[in-house]
Amino acid sequence: MSTQAPIRRNTVPQIAARKGGDPIVSLTSYHAHTAAIVDKFADFILVGDSLGMVMHGMDSTVGVPLDLMIMHGKAVVRGTQKALIVVDMPFGSYEESPKVAFRNAAKIMKETGCGAVKLEGGARMAKTIHFLVERGVPVMAHTGLTPQSSHVMGGFKTQGRDESTWDAHREDARAVAEAGAFAVVLEGMVEPLAAQITTEIDIPTIGIGASVHCDGQILVLEDMLGLNPWTPKFVKVYGQLGPMIEDSVRRYAEDVKNRAFPTEDEVYR
Ligand code: KIV
Q1: pLDDT of 16-59, one tens digit each?
Q2: Residue ranges in the chain modelled with pLDDT below 70
Q3: Which of 157, 76, 260, 147 is nearest to 68 (CA)?
Q4: At a CB cut-off of 8 Å and minimum separation 6, what does 218 contact?
Q5: Is 187 a catalytic residue?
């Protein structure tokens, strides 16, 4: 009798094979119960290091520690069954050398049970991506606006406004694809550049603020739910959870003050 459970989750090769096909649906998630909802619709779920800003009130993703990524990664894996789970490698956990990157990627995969990791950077990370993939770690790359480098970039700026930078961005995408990444996030990039890269490389491009021409899209869940105090302009907001929570908490506070709770008789009847 086989002791192996059947693989039900979307796999890395299945996502890679979607190049040029049906658009790939993805969202971030950091929490078991919201991930269970997202799992019904998403091909992959990213446990993004944006959780530092969205959940933990940090100013940037630079301060996010590896253990925090692992904690949220575990929660999302527990809460889901179908989507491929990709966990971000946080700043400082992979840039130093391919060996350091492998050690930390292996830790993330072993401790969370995720199916792949994501790291930021183009041509400069190609050697590391190749090293990881050769050793069994599937890698999603991330180029264009790379928030972990926001201090070098001088903020969160749309990339490619100056056409003289396009060749460097195209080279970044080509390099990560050739190194073995199975997909690449293009963040904050002007539309014609994202479109050009999408036609030039043979792995899926996943856009966030990088036009409809990408092979798939990703958004930060809390942004599209209207739960963040500030939302980037490119985000289409599908819900207004912030105001809903405020209204619910206000009504709860009123009930507490008015002693308007069910009586013991009503609860245990
Ligand atoms: O950390 C994150 O949420 C991300 C997405 C913006 C792609 O990397």
Answers
A1: 999 999 999 999 999 999 999 999 999 999 999 999 999 999 99
A2: 1-3, 5-7
A3: 76
A4: 26, 27, 28, 46, 185, 206, 207, 208
A5: yes
Q: What is the pTM of this model?
A: 0.95
- Burial (0-12, 13-18, 19+ Cβ within 10 Å), 152: exposed
Question: How remote is the CA of residue 49 from the centroid of ligand 1, in Å?
Answer: 6
Q: Ligand 1 mean position to 210 CA, how many Å?
A: 13
Write the single-letter amino acid at 179: A
The domains of the chain, with CATH numbers, are 12-240 (3.20.20.60)
DSSP states along 169-219? HHHHHHHHHHHT-SEEEEESB-HHHHHHHHHH-SS-EEEESS-TTSSEEEE
Please check whether residue 26 is in contact with residue 218, taking contact to mean a CB–CB distance below 8 angstroms: yes
**Residue 100: both structure tokens together:** 């350091």
Ligand 1 lined by 220 (C-beta under 6 Å): yes
CA 148 to ligand 1 center in whole angstroms: 10
Pocket test for ligand 1, best of 28, 140, 186 (most atoms within 8 A of CB): 28
Which position among 120, 187, 222, 264 bears the catalytic label?
A: 187
Beta carbon of 10 within 6 Å of any ligand 1 atom: no
> What tens digit of pLDDT does each residue of 213-247 get?
999 999 999 999 999 888 999 999 999 999 999 99
Phi/psi at 182 (5° precision):
-90, -10
Contact by Cβ (8 Å): 51, 72:
yes
| R_g of the chain, CA atoms, integer Å | 20
